[in-house]
Automatic annotation (TrEMBL):
Protein name: Uncharacterized protein
């Protein structure tokens, strides 16, 4: 059964390499400018452009054909300005090992070669700049736990840098990037952490394949969480749940922190991935890391794809409910 819902994130702007949140409205040469309008123009310019995987570094070689086949595809299909807010529809998915698609409605259709096709789904996204202050909200649809927030944030950053480097009217060193951290009712997070009991730590070092994917395990460490380690582990679990959504090194850093708790030099083993298995009464065991967020932090809507209107209504209610607790002031009147 396919489940539909969404996740919420605290959305902020920082300078290229900075950490201090910047205002979304600024003055220049006696005129007032909106960074949300600049973001809208940036995303509109990239509408229908198909990107593969996450952005590569400036010195990385281009992807080979084999590498392109293994990367998820990501593209913006639709973008609308709803007052100060931005509504997006994106497509996201990846090719796995399917090679032929067969008709499911009747026997009159023909088989379709899927060798060079990545099946995708449409995901809806709301971007809500703050009406005052520096903190806005990002809402990203989650379908059966898949939520491509990382791809939107990382590509938005990459496009902003690209624009700064190619637009002669802009200072190439003065550009801003979006950051996104999980937004939720603080009481919900506190209650979750109080109920959860850390059971086991898993740490993994992976082998990079020829296609530059780190899918194959070199080794795995499994360790029970001792009573004198539990508090430190659950502190890291809480940090992981609200970690920056686009940080590609978040799982590796989380694993290193867990290795430090375990001791015996484990943190020196160049661990790529790690997670904690926690036990929740009446729920069971769940895996937690920055990329493994429990469904309790996904706002559910339905087991069938909701209409745009219902999606927007549910998102609006959730944003209005939590905005004060996360320190955001959002104008939702046009949403």
């Amino acid at each position: 059964m396919t489940s539909y819902g969404f996740r919420l994130f605290q959305l902020e702007l920082v300078r290229r390499d900075g950490r201090t949140p910047q205002p979304w409205v600024y003055d220049k040469d006696g005129q007032q400018f909106s960074r949300s309008a600049e973001l809208l123009r940036l995303l509109t310019a990239k509408c229908t452009v198909v990107e593969r995987g996450l952005p590569l570094g400036p010195d990385a070689r281009p992807l080979t054909d084999a590498e392109r086949r293994t990367r998820p595809v990501f593209t913006i299909e639709r973008i609308d300005a709803l007052g100060p807010s931005i509504f997006l529809e994106i497509r996201y998915g990846r090719h796995r090992d399917e090679d032929v698609g067969l008709p499911i409605a009747d026997d009159s259709g023909v088989a379709v070669d899927l060798t060079d096709i990545a099946p995708t789904r449409r995901y809806r996204i709301g971007i809500f700049p703050p009406s005052t202050g520096t903190r806005g909200v990002l809402a990203v649809e989650a379908i059966s736990r898949a939520c491509p927030s990382k791809y939107l944030v990382r590509w938005a950053r990459s496009w902003a840098q690209e624009h700064a480097l190619t637009d002669p009217a802009q200072d190439s060193q003065d550009w801003h990037k979006v950051t996104a951290r999980a937004a939720m009712d603080p009481g919900l997070l506190e209650n979750y952490l109080q109920q959860a009991e850390a059971q086991t730590i898993f740490l993994v070092q992976r082998h990079e394949t020829a296609s530059r994917r780190r899918d194959t395990e070199r080794f795995r460490i499994e360790a029970a969480v001792l009573s004198n380690q539990s508090e430190s582990v659950m502190t890291r679990v809480g940090d992981a749940i609200v970690a920056e959504a686009a940080d590609e090194d978040a799982d590796a850093q989380f694993a290193s922190d867990l290795g430090e708790i375990l001791g015996h030099g484990i943190e020196e083993l160049d661990i790529d991935d790690g997670w904690v298995v926690v036990d929740i009464p009446a729920v069971g065991r769940q895996q937690i890391s920055p990329s493994r967020i429990p469904e309790i932090f996904v706002y559910p809507i339905d087991n069938e794809r909701p209409s745009d209107q219902r999606f927007r209504t549910e998102v609006k209610a959730a944003v209005l409910r939590i905005q004060r607790s996360i320190g955001a002031t959002i104008d939702m009147s046009s949403w």
